[in-house]
């Protein structure tokens, strides 16, 4: 082959090799541009999952495996409240007082029912029938001991609380019935007095003298003048029981509730919302966040088998920040559940929304490398001389 033909062939081989190298570099650069860096550690987010028994472990695992730039912490729903065990022992005290009264041991009768705060505690627990028996036997003990002033004070409390006379009255003397009867007549003739009650925080449930709920604070209550036992409770706060003296002219009282500890909040949540369709209501989620000590709480609920309905609520600092829901086939859970999680976090501004493709540096790097590769290929092609055909005759 002539020397000049050999040189052209060599230049073509070099051009093809350079073109291959450029294409390789372009593909590598594009791949690097598309590779995502590991997600940074973000703010902590607590997740609580409520789902059907067979679905919950799978859903929880899917959420644990989601790659989101936040610190996910999982918490359990508070357990169902234990069945209340009736308090024992008070019947024994009443039986002892009755036995001492029959034996004319009036001092022993009084000792069996000692305790100035006992009736307050019982009325705070809405045990009006028990209080009526307690006060009847106290009255009987004082009448038997000829302690008239104490007897009249107990009888007045009985009448102001508007208690029903218990069957135990058959075992006391007519003198006891007479004192009680006079007190009930006197109290019934009094004009009602107004108790203007306010609470901090407001919207607390108020009950008076062991009755069912009377009103929601702030409210005005018309009551017989005298001592009353007021119970105030609000979800998320410690119940407050307080004795208040209401004069004939009326009075205004402000009661301050203290926040309940997480254990009490969890009990309140379980009593009201465990197993309830309203589990993802705003009030339930805010209460649950306090129960599990979460500044940012995600409640994810799931129902269904083949077709799964996913719902999510995000609470941040005692406010509902986002809600969303998804429908998915069972096999789509690994994709749909993390997307629901990300949507909630973006709505709640815990995560920034994803950048459009044209605003990502990797996209423009790939475009730049591709353009450079194309320019290089064009330059190589243009540098090649046009092909020539030589015919040699021998």
The percent range for helix content is 40-55%
Tell me about the largest β-sheet.
5 strands, mixed
Uncertain residue ranges: 1-37
- Strand sequence of the main sheet, in spatial order? 2-1-10-11-12
String of helices and strands:
HEHEHHHHHHEEEEEEEHHEEEHH
Strand content: 15-25%
Shape: elongated
Compute the CA-based radius of gyration.
Answer: 40 Å
Quick check: average pLDDT?
83
H/I helix tally: 12
Question: How many runs of DSSP E, i.e. beta strands?
Answer: 12
Structural class: alpha/beta
- In angstroms, what separates the terminal alpha carbons? 14 Å
Task: Provide structural commentary.
The N terminus is likely disordered. The strands form 3 sheets. The protein has a 5-stranded mixed β-sheet with strand order 2-1-10-11-12. With 394 residues, the chain is of the alpha/beta class. It is built from 12 helices and 12 strands. α2 links the parallel β1 and β2.
Write the layout of secondary structure elements.
Layout: H1 3-34, E1 44-51, H2 56-65, E2 71-75, H3 90-102, H4 106-112, H5 118-124, H6 128-144, H7 148-160, H8 174-188, E3 193-200, E4 205-208, E5 215-216, E6 219-223, E7 226-233, E8 240-246, E9 251-256, H9 262-273, H10 282-291, E10 296-303, E11 307-316, E12 319-329, H11 333-347, H12 361-383
Parallel strand pairs: 1-2, 1-10, 3-9
Antiparallel strand pairs: 3-6, 4-5, 4-7, 7-8, 10-11, 11-12
Helix pairs in contact: 1-12, 3-4, 3-6, 4-6, 6-7, 6-8, 7-8, 9-10
Search tags:
alpha/beta, 4-stranded antiparallel β-sheet, 12 strands, 44% helix, disordered N terminus
Summarize the structure.
This protein is 44% helix and 21% strand. It is of the alpha/beta class.
């Amino acid at each position: 082959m002539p020397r000049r033909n050999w040189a052209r062939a060599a230049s073509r081989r070099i051009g093809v090799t350079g073109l291959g190298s450029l294409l390789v570099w372009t593909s590598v650069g594009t791949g690097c541009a598309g590779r995502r860096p590991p997600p940074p550690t973000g703010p902590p987010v607590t997740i609580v999952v409520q789902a059907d028994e067979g679905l919950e472990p799978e859903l929880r695992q899917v959420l644990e495996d989601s790659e989101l730039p936040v610190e996910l912490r999982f918490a359990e729903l508070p357990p169902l409240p234990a069945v209340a065990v009736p308090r024992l022992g008070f019947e024994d005290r009443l039986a002892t007082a009755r036995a001492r009264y029959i034996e004319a041991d009036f001092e022993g009768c009084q000792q069996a029912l000692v305790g100035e705060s006992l009736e307050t505690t019982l009325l705070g627990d809405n045990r009006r029938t028990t209080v009526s028996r307690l006060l009847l036997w106290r009255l009987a003990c004082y009448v038997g001991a000829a302690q008239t002033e104490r007897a009249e004070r107990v009888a007045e409390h009985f009448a102001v609380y508007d208690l029903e006379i218990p069957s135990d009255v058959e075992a006391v003397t007519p003198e006891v019935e007479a004192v009680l009867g006079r007190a009930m007549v006197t109290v019934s003739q009094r004009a009602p007095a107004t108790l203007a009650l306010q609470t901090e925080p407001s919207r607390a449930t108020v009950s008076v003298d062991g009755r069912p709920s009377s009103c929601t604070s702030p409210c005005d209550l018309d009551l017989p003048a005298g001592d009353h036992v007021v119970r105030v409770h609000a979800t998320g706060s410690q119940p407050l029981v307080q004795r208040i003296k209401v004069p004939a002219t009326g009075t205004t009282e402000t009661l301050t509730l203290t926040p309940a500890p997480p254990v009490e909040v969890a009990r309140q949540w379980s009593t009201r919302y465990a197993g309830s369709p309203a589990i993802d209501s705003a009030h339930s989620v805010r209460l649950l966040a306090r129960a599990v000590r979460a500044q940012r709480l995600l409640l994810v609920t799931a129902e269904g088998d083949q077709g799964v309905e996913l719902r999510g609520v995000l609470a941040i600092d005692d406010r509902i920040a986002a809600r969303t829901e998804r429908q998915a086939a069972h096999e789509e859970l690994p994709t749909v559940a993390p997307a629901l999680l990300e949507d909630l976090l973006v709505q709640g501004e815990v995560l920034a929304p994803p950048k459009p493709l044209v605003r990502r540096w990797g996209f423009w790097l790939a475009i730049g490398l591709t353009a450079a590769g194309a320019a290089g290929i064009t330059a190589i092609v243009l540098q090649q001389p046009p092909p020539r055909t030589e015919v040699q005759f021998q």
